[in-house]
Amino acid sequence: MASRRYKVKKSAQTAQKDVAKDFIESSEVLAEQLSKTEDFIQKNKNLVLGVLAAVLLVVGGYLGYRYYIQGQNEIAQKDMFQAIFYFEQDSLDKALNGDGLNFGMLQIIEDYGATKAGNIARFYAGVSYLKKGEFQTAIEYLDDFSSSDLIVQARAYSLIGDAYMELGNYSDAASNYEKAASHKSNKEFTPQYLFKAALAYEKQSNYQAAIDNYQQVIDEYFGSAQYQDARKHKARLEALASP
Fold it and tell me: Global pTM?
């Protein structure tokens, strides 16, 4: 028993010595590495300082830009207030071009295009041109608009589809309606976009694609406003497409 205790004690002492040895050796390696690092910094002082300055410049520039954009966005929101009022009153020319005292959407886009307010102004401008019947211009502004909001972005795609429909470009219309339908699908708006896509496909005589869209409304959106019409149009197209 005493021999076993002696062996255990000796083993523990050996382990402690190994740990101490490793620590000393590790410390020596660390000190050596630090010495090499110091030598490198001394020999390449200009390079290190240059890299450090570049990093600080990039970080400082980014933070400064964010602060600047935030300030510009607040100004743009105030400047856009009257233009939104004109838009809601259907005074589209004033909404787009201003009234001589207040900015219109086009000036907001030109002066504050990089801000959130400038981005929203593109949406308003696109809708305004769509209402005015200037469909190609509407497409250009709506194409430049981008939003993380699931409803607004899908709405923009759908409006682009509407503009293409008015231009008789049914292929691009269907494509944008499909994008609207697949953009974070929801029961309130997706059936409407699928229905529009089906109508655009039908305009191209692509009856099977139209039937597929009507079928998706029937399968996935029971109770929607488009459900019954989708059933009727699907049956009509199936009869039309049959030999």
Answer: 0.73
